[in-house]
UniProtKB/TrEMBL annotation:
Organism whose genome encodes this protein: Peptacetobacter hominis
Gene Ontology annotations of biological process type: lipid metabolic process
Residue span, Choloylglycine hydrolase/NAAA C-terminal domain: 2-311
Family, similarity comment: Belongs to the peptidase C59 family.
Name recorded for this polypeptide: choloylglycine hydrolase
Lineage, broadest ranks: Bacteria, Bacillati, Bacillota, Clostridia, Peptostreptococcales
UniProt cross-references to Pfam families, sorted A to Z: CBAH
């Protein structure tokens, strides 16, 4: 399972948990401006904008799970099994494969408004990257500072939803999550008053009683509500450190702990990595399941006009800083 979110607090930040029972060979990858992507059905993409995100690299091709470009446009793919539909090639449409979707949008467009014009004409086609890589059934959160949209290509066609919650998880389709939020209208981060019955003497005995009823499980529907609750009530100063820390705290509140949810095959679905991207500065912060120390990669410290990908292996070993010893492990 996965959760993606946007937090605007001075700068604009995007966060994402990638929950999966296996590693997909993920690395932080910077694609420079002017990088050439051969597209399966459309003419060559020559990227106008550089991008940074988490990807596996196949040959010279970065297969991104999520990324942001130098203009602050973000896109994340999240699992949408049973609902994502990819079509055959159609005349008169822009025929893009799901793995081309992120480079296409981030390579060409600076804002959601610009990207949306192109998305309306896109037909996501059923061509996989390689024989041993089946198509990933995805829906997408696409966002900049101003807008956040969700794109779902389903059997009823390609849908674009305005996402005022700034959160996306997995199934069911987005209309469900949006409607389901109404069930939580009564939750509050303030101290609740007795509205149960004036005939009864009920009072609070603990902090946080306004959030009783907030779902605590890791299902997609529940993670959606919990992330929206924590995000929309979020408070942090506008400093970089405070915002980054806050985004990781919200992501932690919906993270999957190894062993807590098993796939039908008995494997642990777990949060492989969490990231927080400062979209204004082009900085990609992440931590992994094993290593909860935050690592940062600044896109603008690299040559984003070069002609090759810049790839960073993940810092996966747990790093501990001792306060009373010179040794750090
Ligand atoms: C599994 C990832 C999504 C995580 C998620 O949403 N999990 C939820 C599980 S569940 O529904 O709730 O059960 C998706 C997001 C992007 C996907 C990757 C990207 O689409 C890029 C390529 C595409 C190739 O076809 C397959 C490998 C791949 C490298 C994909 C592997 C995997 O399917 C990724 C990493």
């Amino acid at each position: 399972m996965c959760t993606s979110l946007k937090y605007v607090n001075g700068d604009c930040y995007f966060g994402r948990n990638l929950d999966l029972e296996y590693s997909f060979g993920e690395k932080v990858v910077i694609t420079p401006r002017g990088y050439k992507f051969e597209l399966r059905k459309e003419k060559m993409l020559n990227t106008k904008y550089a991008m940074i995100g988490m990807a596996t690299v196949a040959g010279k091709y970065p297969l991104y799970a999520e990324a942001v470009n130098e203009k602050g446009l973000y896109i994340a793919g999240l699992n949408f099994p049973g609902n994502a539909v990819y079509n055959d090639e159609t005349d008169g449409k822009l025929n893009i494969t799901p793995f081309e979707f992120i480079p296409w949008l981030l390579g060409n467009f600076a804002t959601v408004d610009e990207a949306e014009e192109s998305i309306k004409n896109i037909n996501l086609i059923n061509i996989n990257f390689a024989e041993n890589m089946t198509l990933a059934p995805l829906h997408w959160m696409i966002s900049d500072r101003e807008r956040c949209i969700v794109v779902e290509q389903r059997k009823d066609g390609l849908n674009i939803f305005e996402n005022e919650y700034n959160v996306l998880t997995n199934n069911p389709p987005f209309e469900y999550h949006r409607w389901n939020m109404n069930n939580y209208i009564n939750l509050t981060n303030t101290t609740p008053e007795n509205r149960f019955s004036q005939k009864l003497d009920l009072s609070t005995y603990s902090r946080g009683m306004g959030s009783i009823g907030l779902p605590g499980d890791v299902s997609s529907a529940s993670r959606f509500v919990r992330a929206v609750y924590n995000l929309s009530n979020s408070e942090s100063t506008k400093s970089e450190r405070s915002s980054v820390s806050q985004v990781f705290h919200v992501l932690d509140s919906v993270a999957m702990i190894r062993g807590a949810a098993l796939t039908p095959e008995g494997k642990s679905d777990m949060t492989r990595y969490s990231c927080c991207i400062n979209a204004d500065k082009g900085i990609y912060y992440y931590k992994t399941y094993e290593n909860c120390r935050i690592t940062a990669i600044d896109m603008n410290s690299e040559n984003i006009d070069g002609d090759s990908l810049t790839v960073f292996e993940l810092e996966r070993d747990l790093q501990i800083k001792y306060s009373n010893s010179k040794e750090s492990i």
